[in-house]
Design goal:
The chain has 330 residues and is an alpha/beta fold. 42% of the residues lie in helices and 17% in strands. GO terms for molecular function: 5'-nucleotidase activity; magnesium ion binding; nucleotide binding.
């Protein structure tokens, strides 16, 4: 068989040479197809049935920017209760930071009964999909105010906290230690932004993992007197729906990280979507991947969550999705 090369000269090819050219062509085509595979389709964890993605094209574009930007442009912002901590373990409901105190035999029975009553009443309002955010906010302020005032009446001592956590069933999600260690190793900032109790969060992370210096916690911190007794709370109250308007957004935290415009945000509440509002600037195109953990009232709220979060996880007690994405970036 004769073919013409680039100069116009005819070259005779044998069967073996022709087969070789065909083979090379097949390899090149196969290679191009492999290169065209989308990231969102090649991360195994994203293909699982409990992972819901409404707009895969949008997620693909965000993943491309995150990977292209690398670790130098990345920061992580995460809620704590039922986001970095488990909602259930082996079918049993886990404790939030407030619940650790609510269920602890160290505190008076009267406190525990009143705290649980508050939780049962106000949590139903928090997750009520028929109420607007504006309608819910006053109730959340009432809830946090009453819960904190109730706690102050108990004469809680700081030294009680480690033992209360050890006796509780509060657990970090599977994979948190790997995530914390990798973010620390690669010097990627992690902001834990919680409406829970900061003193409890610190102790949980220290007991069950490592509280690295790249981790910043913004939460409700108790104010202890010289005897170590809780007499109140420091700073502004943080509840589930005001994470866009308190101290962290008035500080220089996000300003100091303006060279890191790429954000992976994780939360379990609609209010968590505003945790990283201050991370965007006018001169840098923002790139934010929102990962939502849907823990309760799943059938009622799934479509709402899919419309707000880029990735929604149902009945997932791990941070495997975030870790699988970090493995592509770091």
């Amino acid at each position: 068989m004769a073919v013409v090369n680039w100069s116009g000269t005819k070259i005779s090819l044998g069967i073996s040479a022709l087969v070789g050219l065909v083979g090379i062509g097949y390899i090149l085509v196969k290679h191009r197809k492999r290169k065209r595979q989308r990231i969102v389709d090649t991360i195994d964890e994203l293909q699982k049935v409990h992972v819901h993605i409404k707009d895969r094209d949008r997620v693909e574009q965000i993943l491309l920017k995150l990977v292209e930007g690398g670790k130098e442009k990345l920061q992580i912002v995460a809620d704590f209760d039922f986001t970095l901590s488990k909602f259930t373990e082996k079918g049993n409901r886990c404790s939030s930071t407030h619940n650790i105190l609510d269920s602890s035999p160290v505190l008076p029975v009267q406190y525990r009964e009143q705290a649980v009553a508050l939780r049962d009443f106000y949590f139903a309002i928090e997750i009520n999909h028929e109420m607007t955010l504006a309608q819910k906010v006053p109730y959340m302020v009432e809830w946090w105010t009453k819960a904190h005032n109730l706690l102050v009446q108990c004469n809680l001592r700081k030294g009680m906290i480690p033992e209360m956590i050890q006796a509780s069933n509060a657990k970090l999600r599977d994979g948190c230690t790997w995530m914390f260690n990798q973010l620390h190793k690669h010097q990627v900032p992690l902001l834990i932004f919680s409406a829970g109790l900061g003193d409890i969060i610190e102790e949980i992370v220290q007991q069950q993992s490592t509280l690295h210096e790249n981790i910043k916690i913004v939460s409700n911190y108790m104010d202890f007197n010289h005897q170590g007794v809780c007499v109140g709370f420091k700073g502004e109250m943080i509840h589930v729906f005001n994470k866009n308007e308190n101290a962290i957004h008035n500080s220089d935290y996000f300003e100091n990280l303006s060279h890191r415009p790429n954000v992976i945000l994780m939360g379990d509440s609609i209010g968590d979507l505003h945790m990283a509002d201050g991370a965007t600037t006018d001169d840098v195109e923002p790139c934010k991947l929102n990962i939502g953990f849907l823990n309760t009232n799943i059938e009622e709220r799934l479509e709402t969550y899919k419309g707000l979060f880029d990735i929604v996880l149902v009945n997932d007690e791990t941070v495997d999705i975030c870790n699988s994405i970090l493995k592509r970036i770091l």
